[in-house]
Predict the structure.
Amino acid sequence: MTDPQQWPEPNPADVTSTLARITVPVEEALTWNPLTADDAAAVAALPPHSALLIVQGSSGTSERFLLDADRVLAGRHQKADIFLDDVTVSRKHVEFIRDGDGYRVRDVGSLNGTYVNRDRVDVAPLSSGDEVQIGKFRMTYQASPNKA
C-alpha cells in the first residue's frame, strides 16, 4: 500500500463536484420537528409536575413517554421504566429526576453517552423544547404547562 501523502494531486478536470459545508444555527436545528396537534394536546393535558418525552418517527408519527415519578430510568433493560430497544442504548442508560416543576437528566454510566441539545452531559436540567439523545433515539422534552 502506498503512502497517501505521495499520491498525486487530482486533476481539476477529473473532479465532478465540490461539496460545501452547510451550517445551521443551533436554534433552527433544534426546532426542525415541531409538535403535532396530537402531541400539543397531550402536553396541554399533562398534570402538574409531569413531562413528556416525544420521539418523532420518520413517518410523522410519534411515541410518547410520560415522566410522572420522582425517578424514571431509561435504558435497554426490559425492566426499565422507559424501554429503548436498540444496541446503541445501555441497559441502564439515564435517569430522569424530578427537579421542582420539571426534570433533569443524569447519565448513569452509559457507553455511548447522553446528549442534551447535541452537547454530551453527565447531568443537565431540562427545559421544554430540549432535545435529549439516548443512543439513536432523539426525543423532545416537554414540561407540563399546568401548575399545581
